[in-house]
Each structure stands twice: as structure tokens, then as C-alpha cells.
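This part of the workshop introduces the protein records we will be handling. A record pairs a protein's sequence with a compact description of its fold. Comparing a sequence with its C-alpha cells is the quickest way to learn the format. The record below serves as our worked example for the rest of this section:
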Amino acid sequence: MMMAKETLYVLEAQHITINFGGLTAVNDVSLQVPFESIISIIGPNGAGKTTFFNCISGFYQIDGGTVLFQERPINGIPTDEIADLGISRTYQNIRLFTNMSVMENVLIGQQPRLHSTCVDTILQTYRNRREEQQSIQKASNLLEFVGLSAYADDLAKNLPYGAQRRLEIARALGNNPHLLLLDEPCAGMNPHETAAMIDLIRTLRSDLKITVVLIEHDMKVVMNISDSILVLDHGEAIANGTPEEIQKNQRVIEAYLGTGTDDLVEKYSQRKKKAAQPIGEE
């Protein structure tokens, strides 16, 4: 008896290219994302990271290449249909409904999964009442999952910054995603908020079995949670590997620090070795 072909990757971006006028913003970039993995995309400012995110999530129409989600091509599919397939994302700049409650923000995230019609809502049919109850219960569960149950009735704009980031994730989870794209989830956070976000991202994978791809500038975060890292510079992939491989890659070091950094890297390595020595040992 023949076994069904196993799907190895939840997402495959193959040779993605996009141009804006005469500028090539992303040039021939490929990425394979295994199921239940945490993949980071890093690079200097202007490297094309968010543009690449917009390509794989359907916000931009690509000029070349193919995007496969669970082996299905999704090039040119409207963003709402891509969301229906199981891809959710957050944004570099927080995009909450600030004058709505925390609970209402999470309820909105469930809209793509609801089946009640306008007629159901007007007539308050059984289907509408049942979905409404289920949605409220699910939103409550998601707020508990991200640690925001106590804020359910507060306006979103009144949340602390780190809590707003977690609310965005809770709203994205309302879509029951298989793949979650996070654009700089730790941007602007203090160390305590960053540590909480790291724990949340790990829990998304361990408890909910969600695959996560994130853009992040905080290298401590990236090296701490990533299974593999894609490095972009000027719209091109310059490295792809494990955290250990990336932090030793000379092209990555030069992209972040400039050329001629051999002496600087060597001095940094020596300082780390010296700091690791027991006191009094030479």
C-alpha cells in the first residue's frame, strides 16, 4: 500500500523577486519553513525584511517566484483567502482598534471563521447566538493564554506597550492559524516585556503547534528562540542557517558592522573568553 506523501514544509518561498519601479526590493530570495519551527529573518534596516513578509503573506504581488503554503501555490490569492487558509500576521507598527475593548479586538480576529449571515444577526437566530457564545468563550481563552484576562474590558489604547503587542498576537490567533508571521514582536520593549514575549512565542509552538516566522532586530531574542535564521541585505539572502552558523558568518558580520571587522570580532571573542574564565585564572 502506498503511503501518502508527507508535507515537509508549512511554507516554501521559492526565488521571490519584487520590483518597485527601477528598484529591486527583494531579489531571488528562498525560504523553507518546517512545521512547528521558529524561523527568524534578520538584516540591517532597509534589507527587505518586511517587504519579503508582504510578499509571502499576499500583500504584494510578486514579480517572480512561487509561494507555497502546505504545498499549495498562493501567488495572487487575495489576502482574506490566504487568512482563511491559516496564515495570520502582526505588524511592525501596532494596529489595534484602540477605542475598542481588549475583548472586542480579539473577537474581531475571529471574523474570518464565522458563518452567520447578516440575516442571522438581525433575526438573532440560533446559529448566530451559538457562534456569539463560542466566540466570547474562545476570546476569553485566548486572553488567558497571552496573560491579558484582567484587561478584557479595558480599552486597547490603555494597555501597557508590551501588553498591546500580546493583544495583537491574541487577535491573530483568533483565525486559528497554522503559520504566524510576527513583524518585530519585541520592538520597543523593556527587558521584562521581551522575556515575556520570548516565553509566549515558545508556547505558541509547544502548546498550540503553531509555526512562527518572525522579523526581529534584537539579536538576543533571535539567537535564543530560532531554529534557523535567514539573513537579508539589500534585498538578497546572504546567509541561512542555525544560530551558531549565523553568528560566525563573516558576510553577516560585515552586513551589520561594515567591512574590515576582523579585528573587532577577534577582540570581542577574546573578551568573551576572558569573561568566562574563573576569577584569578590567567
Observations:
- Residues 95-176 form a domain with the Rossmann fold fold (CATH 3.40.50.300).
